[in-house]
Amino acid sequence: MSDPSRAPGVLHVVATPIGNLGDLSPRAQAVLRSVDAICAEDTRHTRQLLGHFGIERPLIALHEHNEDGLAARLVERLQAGESLALVSDAGTPLVSDPGFRLVRAAREAGLRVSPVPGPSALIAALSVAGLPSDRFVFEGFLPAKAGARRERLRTLASEPRTVLFYESSHRIEEMLADAVQTFGGARPAVVARELTKLFETVLDGPLEALAARVAGEADQRKGEFVVLIEGAGDDVDARLAEGRRVYALLSREIKPSLAAKLAADITGAPRKSLYGQGTPDT
Ligand code: SAM
């Protein structure tokens, strides 16, 4: 029953370890201990984590298949004064994990959503990769199908910022082979595996050497991965190549002068270097 005298509760978004239990912060423990219920991606997994810290709270399963339907009911519970925590199996919720719909619904209802920051594999990998980290792009998981995956990689080939991907053991070998084809074998990259766990490994080198190492050594294909690829930088040649690629695509559909203007706006390549280039068959 909702008590109108009770202030609305808070939704705490709590990061949990990506491998090392010691990474559950004291504040995360205190918040998890204090809430009325904990929304968890996999309740069995979270029960184990909580058990390790002697925390016993009711758990609510919230995953990609039920989040849409459940968000409204959870918002009602928050409005009625209950406080809730949201956790995922590992790392920070919403980062390639469920929670976006619940957080959006809570914010739209004017409720307080408060972070308890902590581990995330992408930031952990970036912090040790030794690649430019002032600007970076997180692409999450690439599409599982080879064609869609290659197409996504192609759109990133001239990206000037460091690009980060999540990858699984099933696809790491294929993903690196595709990356060599798209970014070129010489592009500096890092494969960060099993961070904070027993077999933590951070390999760096040109993409081609990394792909060969992972293909040739079964152990390097085990576990969880973050792949980081250095950006093309503000390389004039890369910008020009991308400008020509975009111009070629656009000029199939619209008149060349407009195609050149748009391609220049999109890629930063000089318009004059594109217009009148003909239509390269990319
Ligand atoms: N929300 C999580 C976070 O903040 O990092 C990510 C969840 S996503 C479903 C799981 C993916 O994150 C894995 O497939 C892997 O790509 C990456 N990952 C998680 N833990 C990792 C670890 N210890 N080392 C390397 N990558 C990891």
UniProtKB/TrEMBL annotation:
GO terms for molecular function: methyltransferase activity. Pfam families: RsmI_C, TP_methylase. It is found in: Cytoplasm. Its EC number is 2.1.1.198. It catalyses: cytidine(1402) in 16S rRNA + S-adenosyl-L-methionine = 2'-O-methylcytidine(1402) in 16S rRNA + S-adenosyl-L-homocysteine + H(+). Residues 47-275 form the ATP-grasp domain. It comes from the Bacteria. Its main location: cytoplasm. One of its GO terms (biological process) is methylation. InterPro entries: 4pyrrol_Mease (IPR000878), 4pyrrol_Methylase_sf (IPR035996), 4pyrrole_Mease_sub1 (IPR014777), 4pyrrole_Mease_sub2 (IPR014776), ATP-grasp (IPR011761), rRNA_ssu_MeTfrase_I (IPR008189), RsmI_HTH (IPR053910), SAM_MeTrfase_RsmI_CS (IPR018063). Keywords: ATP-binding, Cytoplasm, Methyltransferase, Nucleotide-binding, rRNA processing, S-adenosyl-L-methionine, Transferase. Belongs to the methyltransferase superfamily. RsmI family. Catalyzes the 2'-O-methylation of the ribose of cytidine 1402 (C1402) in 16S rRNA. This is Ribosomal RNA small subunit methyltransferase I. It comes from Luteimonas flava. The gene is rsmI.
